[in-house]
Structure prediction request, 297 residues.
Amino acid sequence: MFTQQQLTAILSSLPDPAFILTRSGRYAAVFGGKDVRHYHDSGFLVGCSMFDVLHEEKARWFTAEVGKALQSRAMHIVEYQLSGKDVKGAGDGPDHAICFEGRIQALDFQVDGEDAVVWIASNITDKNEVQRQLRQLSETDALTGLYNRRKLLQTLDDRLAVYEQDKTQTSVLVFDLDNFKRLNDALGHHAGDAALVEIARLCREVLREDDIIARFGGDEFVVVMPETRRADALELAERLRSHVPVALRKTVRYESTISGGVSEFGLPDRFSNEILTRADAGLYQSKRAGRNRVSAL
Prediction:
């Protein structure tokens, strides 16, 4: 149907680059890559070895994936990144990583005496960024930028699974702003929002990098503390509690405090919300005891 010249022209017009790679890692041919938004001309690679072009660790990874495709004979799909640091003599190459999806298929014939594959590389950097942004929107609270209820419950499920497997402890702090309605009534909802944003900032500053902080709803916050016993979590919660009045006095010109409850996973726990329920009971115990305190249950 098509002449050899026409087939070559068709292959050369492909938007994504298609590499013919031999088992030893040699670029036997390059086709396509005409989408200039994402690709540069790769024709100079023909005849080169990956080990001439890429640093050894990356070249070994590519040849290993070629070997897997040759062994399975089925379509082999991988995701990977390339940046200037992976390429020998990259010069002005990008410092940031570019994400690719590689679709690798073994060929039914040898190329220059070697088994070979066709490797089609698709730039998925933009797609991954869109997915990251959508994931962030689905997991974060719009006002404070903290995680939302959905992400919190997922995190608790994950931590319970860890606890059940190796008994690595997790503690949870639940707290809210004392007399939050009074603040809104006195200064308006914009001041209430400002207070919540300040609490979020303070949590990031005072708590540890590995702690997972979420706005659970309204003025209620939850902090998941991995690999932390209840007594240590209580110390961290008290440190946060002591900082709140000073911070709110400076930012919203209002005197307020927080009350909270702390708990940890226990052997009877079968569901992640059980630890949340106990910590919440600690919060209400603090409220009944006069507020501005943290109770451990």
Observations:
- The first strand starts at residue 17 and ends at 22.
- The mean pLDDT is 93.
- The radius of gyration is 28 Å.
